[in-house]
What we know:
The complex is a heterodimer of chains A (about 80) and B (about 525). Chain A is mainly alpha-helical and about 80 residues long. Chain A has helices spanning about 1-15, 35-50, 60-65, 65-75. Chain A has a single domain (about 1-15, about 25-75), classed as ACP-like (Non-ribosomal Peptide Synthetase Peptidyl Carrier Protein, Chain A), CATH 1.10.1200. Chain A is about 55% helix and about 0% strand. Chain B has 15 helices and 27 strands. At the A-B interface, helix 2 and helix 3 of A face helix 5, helix 9, helix 10 and helix 11 of B.
Amino acid sequence: MEEKIVAFVNDQISSNQTDEKIEAQDDLLGGGILDSLGMMRLISFIETEFGIKVPPEDMTIENFINIETITGYISSK
Amino acid sequence: MISTLPHIVENAASMFPEREAFRCGKASISFTELDVKTNQLSAYLRKKGLKKGDRVGIYMDRCLETTLAVYGIMKAGGVYVPLDSLAPHPRTLFLLEDCGIEFLVTTPKQFKRVSALLAANKTLANIVGISKEIGVDAIGWEAISEISLESYSPVEILETDLAYIMYTSGSTGAPKGIMHTHLSGLTYAKSAAEVYEVTKEDRIAGHAPLHFDISTFNYFTSPLVGAANVIIPDAYTKLPASLSTLIEQEKISIWYSVPLALVQLLTQGVLEKRDLSCLRWVLFGGENFAPKYLRELMNEWPQATFCNVYGPAEINQCTYYHVPSLPENDMQIPLGKIWKSAIHKILDEQDLEVPKGEAGELVVATPTMMQGYWNNAALTMKSIFIAKNAKEIDQKYYRTGDIVRENENGELIFLGRNDRQVKLRGYRVELDEIEAVLTRHEGVEEAAAVINKVDENTTGIYVAVILHANQVFESDDLIAFCKSHLPSYAVPHQIEIRSNFPRTSSGKIKRSAITTI
């Protein structure tokens, strides 16, 4: 699960300027890796890929700050 | 008397010394602290040889240090140049070179990016905000805060001196720098404070990044009246449910952003679970706000007054429209009446005033107008219309490029553009710039960019491309190229490789037909 999300972020939506790939603990939101539309794309990827529904009240910093918290959130659903 | 932007902070420090000036997350700063810390930065920049009029880059995300940088640089007589820390490096490198920037003010978080910029740039000689070894003269924020102000004396600044340069999309493929003086920035700050009756009791949300002109309301108007400005950290701007919690907790009374941020709050902000009753003003600008969303939001926050703000970055603001009641239909919200800091004309293609009620280009004369485009006298000339005023003195008007008409109430209605500028997420994008960037790609012969619908609520850029003979590139290659040369909002959502374009009889690309074949 983690690998899939890491791959999606790195290949599809990251606006990272350095060549370094992001890792599970990297701050996705504050570090300039994702913009607000990138975040929306990530959420719809998660919904399709893992067959869950992410309601607006769950779209919070606590759940989406990095890939580790995202996988934790998906597992809890 | 407050006659320059730094006077704002000096005045606030004497009138409201202990009040909160800026907050970001858990970090907060009073007006006294702001005054002292910006003097320290100013003292450092002067000691390192900064001269009046020198351009200084600010390379940060949304954080408390932005405010230290803005006022520290201006107090030293410098001109601040906000750089989008998320922009592709080639674009940032262009700005650094175009402005001849030697000093860059940043934060430790940007260390990797700044290192990468330094490796490719020759002008940067001084970095403020990073204490680690980085190859050029550098100092951390901690060390700045220890600088003694015993022998500090302020730099004399005139209201006609340059204060800041903001870059925007340029149709030639290179961004253009809009130069503002202390007078133009301050006149805007005072006019906005008056229109919205901003007081020291207000708590203003700082949603716009520093490189977006909306931010001048947060950085200038807010401290001018002694209000508290709550800078919204980047993470919150991406997750509406967290953002609405922050607005509730911080008891925000004035909100100002592009419509997109408000639409996201409405659709994903879980507003029914938040108490946002402190909001008294909701200002939006940058592009049209779809009436169906505006109506829903006005229902959600009945205690707030909603205001459509209009004015290209070249003149800050020139009209406002306080939405009087729920929009009954889906007619576009008017731009409103010209405010009292400005005068205007509506001109036809021969530069003659149109009869009342007819469409034409809006031109505006105002002290909030820019001095011109940086390093581009020809473009500055082109952007100005000169008319004799009643005393037979030349009066300079800025040509907005916006086609408007005046309705029976004297309110301006936006009808379109006289060029190929479009708005995406509130940002100005020149379609010519997209084409110019793509034709710099080795494989591209011709490119034609238009806007189209991505889905029901989103518009994006579609580009059709013809490759040079025998060149093999995929659409993805070209998208990747755009990502490394354009800011994210200007990257096309679709690039289609074609063998030919629809053309007019004279051979010009028929852009109006480009998406339909």
